[in-house]
Write a structure and sequence with these properties.
Elements: E1 2-5, H1 6-11, H2 13-19, E2 25-29, E3 32-37, H3 45-52, H4 54-69, H5 76-91
Parallel strand pairs: 1-2
Antiparallel strand pairs: 2-3
Length: 92
């Protein structure tokens, strides 16, 4: 992890992008962090987007809270029975 000011970012953009392959680079303005250069390639862009999507994160947090309040979830047999009921209901 390293820090680079906005001025350095303007002057050395390509160099910083290349450096970001090895470590995250925090961009600062007036000595305070304002952004992070984090290397992303074709192989991990989907994971990055999912991990950093606030809507997706909220859904995961809600599902986890529901899991905890239900005493740890349900058994697979119960889930399959519930899905069967839903399919029968949708066909009717």
């Amino acid at each position: 992890m390293r820090f680079a000011g906005v001025k350095e970012l303007k002057q050395k953009t390509m160099e910083l992008l290349k450096e970001s392959k090895g470590e995250d680079i925090f961009i600062t303005a007036y000595g305070k962090p304002v952004a992070v250069l984090h290397h992303v390639d074709e192989e991990n862009i989907e994971d990055y987007l999912i991990e950093n999507d606030p809507v997706f994160r909220k859904r995961i947090e809600e599902a986890w809270a529901e899991y905890l309040t239900q005493g740890g979830g349900i058994r697979a047999e119960e889930l399959l029975a519930e899905l069967d009921k839903q399919m029968i209901h949708e066909k009717a």
